[in-house]
Amino acid sequence: MERIEGTENLDPILMMDHSHRYQWASSCVYGTVLDIACGIGYGSRYLVNNPRVTNYIGVDIAPEAIDKAKINYSSDVCSFYVGSAYDLTFIQDESIDVLVSMETIEHLQQPELAMKEFRRILKKDGIFLGSVPTRGLDEHHDQYHGGNQYHLTRFDFNCIKELLSKYFDFVNIYLSQIRLCIETHPLTKSIGSISPVQIESIKYTEDLKDLGIFLFAASLRDLDEPELSTILPSSSSVFLGPLYFEKYAKYIDLYNQYMLTTNLYQDQQKICHDLEDKYQKLYSDYLLTTNMYQDLQKIYNDMDEKYQKLYLDYQLHSNTLEG
């Protein structure tokens, strides 16, 4: 799903997956917050719940999504505008404290252009919070769900690290995965020009095909500063509980139906194979009988020719005697 069109009747685990990213970001937003690709604006309710937020601006390229956002989430604090990640000229230079953009830059053919625009509008001590699907997740969708035509750029760990480090001095990257819980763990801490540190407890390599999303925090400001380190997200686990088990129960029911259908299909295949074997045997018998018939026909024809020849000789001999 590329954009949530409405929160009603939405799969609860899918909703939890999408909302979890905003919950993750909500602890460290403050001041003026810009949400790029805000969709219908549901993320605003998580971000403005932080009392440090004084102004929320939601931007999306789809006018119909912004119309829904204005109807459902506009307030004295929240405003919504149509706009593109490539062109935010209606936002002043260095005016944004926190820029949030979840599941956005994988949709861009040139994410570097968006990064330049993000840097322009962020204050010098501003923070960029975002997420992208892992390359492993995209490849999983290619194999089992036909791929995603809207994902134009794919990110493994090194790709997202290099892109962010090109525009920001300090970068923290996390991996979030859905299991029984939605688990989020740091992969790196303070990648940048001052204190690059790789967290050794996370054995992440370029070859690892993790199914999940990369969450990240990037800034020109040292993310290890006490003021920031206490509010920046770290490891977290959101228990899905009944949502997971309800989904699992539906899966088991579907799996049982699948196995029943598979068994019926295999039984039908066995019957078809048995019929095919009988047909092949009957066809072989037919060919054998046909060959025997053709041999007998040849013998009959030969005997008929000999009979005709003998009969002619007999007629000739009889005429000679009578004469």
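(ticket continues) Second input and output from the same batch:
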Amino acid sequence: MNSFNHQYGNHVICEFIICINILRHLFTLNQRFLVDDLGFKQKRLKCGKIPPMKPLLLSLSLSLLLYLVISPLQAEVGEQAPELEISEWINGDGVTLESLQGKVVIIEFFQLWCPGCNNFSIPLMAEWGGKYFHEIKAGKLYQLSVHTVFEGHNFQNPKRLRKFVREKEIEHLVGIDRHLGDDELPVTMRRYNTNGTPAMAIVDKRGVIRFQRLGGFDVGKAEGLIGQLLRE
């Protein structure tokens, strides 16, 4: 396990325990209401101990564990960042990661209807835009977002995205991840193995991925890494 994965190991375990408890409580709640065989009336059962985990619940829990453990490990930290495959750029001319070498690059992967994106990654990118304003202006740091649509394709279309970018006052470069044929997963999302949104990647001046995370993360530690990469 590399240092990045070790850093989030305890966090993953905590997430798993919390989700198991949620599933168990949902199962308990479902058992509190039974239908009377004669009158088909609902009657409330007395709350007792949480019943044993049924096969379906166990299966869901194991699937959840697999997701929580594997998804943070998908980041290919330490490897060269894959090139972006963008069908359309918003807020400026397109760029390539090759052209950005020599800068620290922050890449946000998002969807416009994603709650985690609207509550975490999009506000964070705006915050970092202000916090690192001088570094960005000096050409030392570059921010960009990639709209990686893997669900709700008809709703999350380019027209709606352009309106969303205006309403959210997103000023940095935004790219629309390219879809090939009828493939539901776009190209850049596949290349980075993000497994969902929001996801964030930080690329160093040599074009190497130094951080990648799906979902929430310790912002302070990420900022510490950004500062380190800027000094390298």
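Agent notes: The chain has two domains: 3-73, 75-231. The longest helix spans residues 9-31. Closing as not reproducible unless the customer responds.
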